[in-house]
Structures are given as C-alpha cells and as structure tokens.
Design goal:
This protein is an all-alpha fold and about 475 residues long. Among the domains are: about 60 residues, Chemotaxis Receptor Methyltransferase Cher, domain 1 (Orthogonal Bundle), CATH 1.10.155; about 70 residues, no CATH class; about 180 residues, Four Helix Bundle (Hemerythrin (Met), subunit A) (Up-down Bundle), CATH 1.20.120. The protein contains 14 helices and no strands. The protein is elongated and about 220 Å long. It starts with a helix and ends with a helix.
C-alpha cells in the first residue's frame, strides 16, 4: 500500500533530524518510494517505523537509508551542463565581483572519491589559463574526457612534484612497507600463538581421556579385589573412581564442545560407563550380602566386560582423533613459525632495499632538479656578471667622455675669454677709427669750403684731402689688422 503524504512528510522530517539530508516538496515522490521499500524490507507498519526513526537507529539502518537516499556514483565532469554553467557563468561572475581580492575559494562537499573537486579545479585552471579553458569547451561533451585523463597524468607525474611531496611520498612508501611487514608478522605470530593454545588444548583433552580410562580401571580393580578378599579396604580405588568419573566426563564435554565428533563419542560413552558402574555396584553388593559365588556368577555373565571393552574402544578413538589434531596443529605451528621467520627476514631485506631504492630515486631526482636550478643560477650569474661588466665599461666610457667634455668646455671658456678681449680691442680701435674718420670728414669739409672760396688754392687743398683719405684708410687697415 502506498504511503500517505503525512507519513512521507514525517519520514522527511525524521531524515532531516537523524541524518541531516534536506529534501524539498519536489522530492516527496522519491521519498515515498524509499519509505515503501524500507517498510517492505523490514516488515514494519509505517507508524511503527516512523516512531522508530525518532529514536537512535542501528548503524545498519543508517547505512541502508544513506544508500537509498544518496547517489553513490561519481566520475570526472559528471552532469556536464552544470560544469559548463560553472565555467561560463558562475566563475566569471564571481571573479568579476571579487576583483582585487587575493583568492576565490571553492567548496566541494559530499564529493565521494574526489572526482568532483578535481573537475572544479580543472575548470578553475581553465578560467585563469585560457589554453585550458578552450580545451575544456572543446571536450566537455565527452563527460569523463581526455582532459581529465591529461590532468590526472600531469598530477601524477613525479617530475612535477615538489620536494616536500617527494619526501612525504618516499618516506610514506617506506613506512607502508614496514607497516605491511609488521602487520603480516603480527598476524602470523597471532596464529602461531593461537595454534599453540590449541595444541595445549589437545594435550589437555588427551590427559582427561587417559584419566577417565584410569578411573574406570581403578573402579574395576577395587571391585575385583573386594570380590576376591571380601575386605572393604580394597574398595578404596572404587570409591575414588566414582568421585572422579563424573567430573572428568563434565570436563571432557566442556573441552570438546567445538568438536561434534568428540561430543557424539562422549554421548555414546556415558551409558556404557553407567552400565559398567552398575555392574560393579551390583557385584559388590552381592559379595557383601550373598557371598563370593553370587558375585562371581554376575561377573561371569561378561556384561561389565563388554561395556568396559566398548568404553575402551570409544576412548581409544577419541584419543586417536586428538592425536591427529595434535599432529596437524603441530604442522601448522611449524608452518606459521617458518612463514613468520621468512617474512621477517625477507620482508626486512625487501623493506631495506625499498628504502634504499626510494632514497636513491628521490636523491637522484632532487639532484637533477637542484643541478638544473644551480645551472640556471650559474647562467643567470654569468649573465648578471656580463651585464655588470658592460655597465662598468659603459660607466668608464661615460667618465672619459665627461672628462673630455670638461676639457672642451674649459678650452671653450678660454677661447671665449680671448674672443672677449679681442672684441674689446676691436671696439677700442673702432672707436679710435671712428674718431679719426670724423676728424677726416671735418678736414675734407674744410677743404671743400676752402676750394670754393680760393680756387687757386685748390690743388693744395686736394692734396690735403688726399692725405685725409689716406689717414682714414690707414685707420681701417689698423682695424682689420686687429682682427
């Protein structure tokens, strides 16, 4: 009969309270199917089962409910459309919203064997390194794609591991080897100790069987002595045997409780012992009351002898079985001892070799990695040294250039001073020339005037004018000479 909605809602509330799994109303049909299967499996009514759910449940029921209510399947890029939305919508939006923050944390809960967080990590890697992102978009339709396999190969490549991870894995494998050897040795030693306990148990059973037969013989010996002599002192072994036989039978039943064959033998032995003891008691009573002949008559009927012979045979069979068990257990003990010795010796040797091999492998890989790093450092150091030498040479050249520039500037300054001094002399000569020129022009003007007033004196004035021009020309020449 289908569960009612009220029962299904009670079932959902109990699951939330006891297990912590949340289901909305859209999952009520699914929960109804789970509830019906559990009721059919357990044979309970819904009311009883729901009342039991309100109490702490056995672990088996928790496990069964968890198996029914959860998905036990996982692989890389399961539900690919969700991962596509994560890569193309969710992560870019979150990165844009958190721009400037140092990190974006992603939480993956209930991820079974870990394929889901690795898938998220690969998508996040594709977001930060576009080359991976394009690979994801191209292969995302394949579900458990070659991208995941490629990422797995990259993650399990020993050459990409850090030094700390290599050391952890190396020493972890060494420790695991030693732990395996220790566990196997402990198991074999425990079996050896257990087998030794069974060997002692077998010896105890055989001792009790021998003691039982001895009690029967003592009882028979006491009976015969009393019948022959009529003296009560001969009954002491008989009386002691009566007290010991019952206790010994109880001990044998307890010791052989795990052995059905021996239990059947003891069940067959008990009535034979009772028959023998009854025959012994009967003959003793007849000897005491009617004399030797009456007791002898009962003895000669061989009822007690037949019971005693059958009891001896059963006890002998039981002892032989215990002897066989003892032999087998001794062989097992020897085998376990030899195996334990071999495991300790060879396991220790293999463990030592494994530790040496792992240490050598790690040392070699670290040496290669460190050697490569040292080579890069040396190369970088050489390049830095060359750059430093080049910079030093450039600095020296710059210093020489600066010295030459300083010398040139000093020479230019000296030349400038000489030019300034020459310019001053030229200015002074020019001033003198200008003064002479003005004087010469005055003379010329005077001469013209004189010529105009006294023509006869023209020739002498023209000679004066020529001398003035010569003086002006001489002054010009002097000026050019100064330059």
């Amino acid at each position: 009969m289908a569960a009612s909605r009220v029962d299904v809602e009670r079932f959902r509330d109990a699951i939330i309270e006891q297990i912590g799994l949340q289901f909305d109303d859209a999952k009520l049909g699914f929960l109804s199917g789970v509830l019906e299967r559990r009721l059919h499996r357990l044979g309970h009514s819904s009311d009883r089962y729901l009342r039991d759910l309100e109490l702490p449940l056995p672990l088996s029921e928790y496990t069964a409910l968890a198996h029914e209510l959860t998905v036990g399947e996982t692989y890389f890029f399961r539900n690919i459309e969700q991962f596509r939305a994560l890569a193309e919508v969710v992560l870019p939006a979150r990165m844009e919203a958190r721009r400037g923050t140092p990190a974006l944390r992603l939480l993956s809960a209930g991820c079974a064997t870990g394929e889901e967080p690795y898938s998220i990590a690969m998508i996040a890697t594709g977001i930060f390194w576009p080359g991976y992102s394009s690979a994801f978009r191209a292969r995302s339709h394949q579900g458990n794609s070659e991208l995941a396999k490629e990422e797995q190969r990259r993650m399990f490549n020993f050459g990409n591991w850090t030094v700390a991870k290599r050391l952890v894995v190396g020493f972890g494998l060494s420790a695991l080897t030693l732990v395996i050897i220790a566990v196997v040795s402990y198991f074999n030693t425990s079996r050896l100790i257990e087998n030794d306990g069974w060997v002692k148990h077998t010896y105890q059973v055989r001792s009790e069987l021998e003691l039982l037969l001895s009690y029967l013989k003592d009882a028979e010996t006491g009976q015969r002595g009393y019948i022959i002599t009529g003296e009560d002192s001969y009954l002491e072994p008989y009386k002691s045997a009566l007290n010991g036989i019952a206790g010994t039978m109880d001990d044998l039943r307890s010791l052989t409780s795990d052995n059905p064959n021996q239990q059947r033998r003891l069940a067959s032995l008990a009535p034979l012992i009772d028959t023998k003891l009854y025959e012994l008691k009967e003959t003793i009573d007849l000897r005491r009351s009617q004399g030797f002949e009456a007791a002898q008559k009962i003895v000669t009927q061989n009822v007690g002898k037949a019971a005693m012979d059958r009891a001896r045979a059963i006890i002998g069979d039981a002892d032989r079985e215990e002897q066989d068990l003892l032999t087998r257990r001794a062989d097992e003990a020897k085998a376990y001892a030899n195996l334990t010795t071999m495991i300790i010796i060879w396991g220790g040797l293999l463990g030592t070799l494994a530790v040496i091999a792992i240490g050598w492998f790690i040392s070699r890989s670290l040496a290669n990695q460190i050697g490569s790093a040292v080579g890069q450092v040396r190369s970088s150091s050489t390049e830095l040294q060359a750059a430093a030498n080049q910079q030093a040479t450039g600095a020296k050249e710059q210093a020489s250039a600066m010295t030459e520039i300083s010398t040139t500037i000093s020479e230019l300054l000296a030349t400038s001073r000489q030019i300034a001094e020459s310019a001053q002399r030229v200015a002074h000569n020019a001033e003198q020339t200008a003064t002479a020129a003005r004087s010469g022009h005055g003379t010329v003007d005077s001469t013209h005037e004189s010529i105009g007033q006294h023509p006869q004196a023209g020739r002498s004035d023209r000679r004066a004018h020529a001398r003035a021009r010569q003086e002006v020309a001489r002054g010009w020449c002097d000026t050019r000479h100064c330059f």
